[in-house]
Amino acid sequence: MAVVIGFSSSDLSWAGSNDAPPPAKTSSMPEEAVSPSSPLPATAPDEEGYLIGPGDVLDISVWKDEALTRACVVRPDGFISFPLVGDIRAAGKTMPQLKSEMEKRLNRYVPEVTLFLDLKQINSLIVYVIGKVNNPGRFVLNVDTNVLQALATAGGLNIFANRNKIRILRHGTSDTTVYPFEYDEVISGKRLEQNIYLRRGDVVVIP
Predict the structure, then answer these.
(1) 134 and 201 housed in the same domain
(2) Domain range holding 179?
(3) How far lies 81's CA from each of 64, 98, 117, 203, in Å?
(4) Quick one: 67 and 168 in the same domain?
(5) Which of 81, 97, 163, 169 is deepest in the core (most CB within 10 A)?
């Protein structure tokens, strides 16, 4: 079960507690912003729902027009450049959204254009694994990665880790969602819904 809270860096002290952390007391956050939300299913997100980010590589082509075929890297400002389209924001959009917008621009020059858009490489999925693992840090993931896989990327838990009080922090616009992760249950095949796929910016905390 996920818990949504207001969060600041000083709140990391609750990571070793048995109880869920209390909501941060703030008068600026509306009550509905801290309502609980359901955890993501433990299945890989599909490409259509993926939000493009800086550094991602897109294969873009127009049917029967080699001059309009190329790989585009999303720049740090979130834009890509493409012939006849010019600069267009890609970051924060899904693949179908970007495809639709590019087709509208291209239709001015190529009537009934057929555009193909493919996510060639993910370079913007950055997550953080902190606490009692053997290699904590910031990790750039180019494939869909769940919590167990992220822990393995960070070298695994060290002998001092509190294995069953791991938390995943997912920051929203005005709140942070906390997903509990009990390591022993997951590796024994129980409550596998805890092994969620990570999103850009997630922080995995191992007390």
Answers:
(1) yes
(2) 3-46+124-206
(3) 20, 12, 14, 32
(4) no
(5) 169
